[in-house]
Write a sequence for this structure.
């Protein structure tokens, strides 16, 4: 059964850091783009960024550029979202998603993603 499971969310003070993980099972992870999204209460879902199937290309939303870093370890079937310099406006439920299968040199959060995780809450507050 294909599954994506996010972990690593929690409560952090402004300026702090968190690393989210997205662990995949049931499919060939290295043939999928991994995207990260978030949704705050009362707001539409926002694309945070994505990473190509090989990990050679990443893209980020302007709101997180320079603060967040997306990476992946295909040997561990896991993607990561490193979040630094967190702000209260980063508070949201964070989701990872997978697009594929295929060999993707590029990625975009505007594309249709096939599989989604259940989400993990990130709260930035003092």
């Amino acid at each position: 059964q294909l599954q994506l499971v996010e972990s690593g969310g929690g409560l952090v003070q402004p300026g702090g850091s968190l690393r989210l993980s997205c662990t995949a099972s049931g499919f060939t992870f290295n043939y999928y783009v991994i995207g990260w999204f978030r949704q705050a209460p009362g707001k539409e879902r926002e694309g945070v960024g994505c990473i190509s199937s090989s990990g050679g290309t990443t893209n980020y939303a302007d709101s997180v550029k320079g603060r967040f870093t997306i990476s992946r370890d295909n040997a561990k079937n896991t993607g990561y979202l490193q979040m630094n310099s967190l702000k209260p406006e980063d508070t949201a439920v964070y989701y990872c998603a997978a697009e594929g299968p295929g060999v993707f040199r590029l990625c975009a959060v505007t594309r249709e993603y096939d599989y989604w995780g259940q989400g993990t809450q990130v709260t930035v507050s003092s």
Summary: Residues 15 and 86 are 5 Å apart (CA to CA). The radius of gyration is 14 Å. DSSP finds no helices and eleven strands in the chain.
